[in-house]
Specification:
102 residues, 45% helix, 4 helices, alpha+beta, GIY-YIG endonuclease
């Protein structure tokens, strides 16, 4: 690996206000595919979509792991990620773990 960032994890805001999280090796092409309706599934009936967040990874495995993690988050945590508010993400993670304790 040469240090190039070849894979992306991304989040789209759909026309209905919901969020879609995915991963790809070509972010511009993939967003255009979602926008054009080439991607059958969640975003197809929720267009137009807007790219609201993405990050780059060196491996597909890492991008897919980030996708799985973010898909498990609630809306407030996703919105904190979009805003780049790492303090809020940490706060939400702590409050969720506190709720999970018996």
């Amino acid at each position: 690996m040469t240090g190039d960032w070849m894979f992306h994890c991304y989040m789209l805001r759909c026309a209905d206000g919901s969020y879609y999280v995915g991963h790809t090796d070509n972010i511009d092409q993939r967003v255009a595919q979602h926008q054009a309706g080439w991607v059958k599934g969640y975003t197809f009936t929720r267009r137009p979509v807007d790219l609201v967040w993405n990050d780059r990874f060196q491996t597909r495995h890492d991008a897919k792991a980030a996708e799985r993690q973010i898909k498990g988050w609630g809306r407030p945590k996703k919105e904190a990620l979009i805003a780049g508010d790492w303090d809020r993400i940490s706060e939400l993670a702590k409050s969720k773990s506190a709720q999970a304790k018996p």
